[in-house]
Amino acid sequence: QTHAGSLERGNDGEGWWWWRCRSTMGQDSKRSTSNRSAEPRIARTLTNKPNKGEDVDGNERVEELWERVRGQVVGDPYLETWCDETCMKRYLRARKGNLQKAQDMLENSLAWRKKMRPELLRWKDVEYQNTLGKMYRSPYPAKDGSPIIIMRPSLENHFGDHDGNIKYLVYVLENAANYAKYGKRSERFIILVDFWKYSLKHAPPLKTSLETLHILQDQFPERLGQAIAYDPPRIFGIFWKMISPFIDPVTYGKIKFVHKKSKSSMQFMEERFNLDLVEEKIGGRLHYSYDHEEYGKVMEKEEVLYSQGKGPEESTPRTTPVGSRKSSPPKENGEPVEKGEEFHMVDEFYDALTISPGLISVI
Is 297 exposed, middle or buried (CB count within 10 Å of its CB: 0-12, 13-18, 19+)? Predict the structure, then answer.
């Protein structure tokens, strides 16, 4: 029998939905409920490994994966929202369609999320980790819509606080995932590491580095679109040799080293990003400096929106990015702004930019 059709939502009496493949065969649609329950589910005939030519994240494989983990999801409102069709497809892709491996990975993430409870993390609980701006989401996504997470290791100010560092990392990753989900953007994000003033004293403890890798690879699978190391110094090679053996091949292939004096590197940046929306410090042309107070206001506002299943764009007017810049950008003719003329960025920052005659306005 040939079964096809889209995934449908139904009610199983528990306030939750379940998936089923709706047949396009005329006879199938006429079967009685009793006959249908007596026959084996099509999904149970699937092998753990997909057959040649079969989609690794096809509807039937998603349905089967759901049946295997639903007992660990139903009854937890947060997990019911998190473990949706798109989420399960990511886990299937991460394990190349192997149902058993995808199930093991997803069950591990469900247990991790029940323990970590990332949905309960709030800015007020983790903001002390980022007073200097060591890691934050950029006001603007990449050309393909991917959210951009900017990291500056030289601004690390809590080396000994392993748990605090991990909680803040999870907060930022979860925020980027929600920004992508509710803003209908690319589900993969870009991590851009700025090695400004970096030295080995800024290298995190091995324990924290390994936990970071574990979270990125196992708890946020298929979320990393690319990791860009911007202008790393030679000394970074020592730390890289220490940590790289622990990076899985798929993640390793997503890492790109960029050097600001390399034409090919800057060409890559131009292709990947709208440089008018990328900070000057990391190869762009955007006059922007991290403002802790203003960034916090945005995070708190987004927390409310995401808890309501809404995205920033649904209630936020298009305007300029968060923060205020104390130094002034050049005018169109390249001359500095006269004293007293202040470059100000307001506290809403989602999709539009109008800065000065010297920069383009993006609407």
Answer: middle
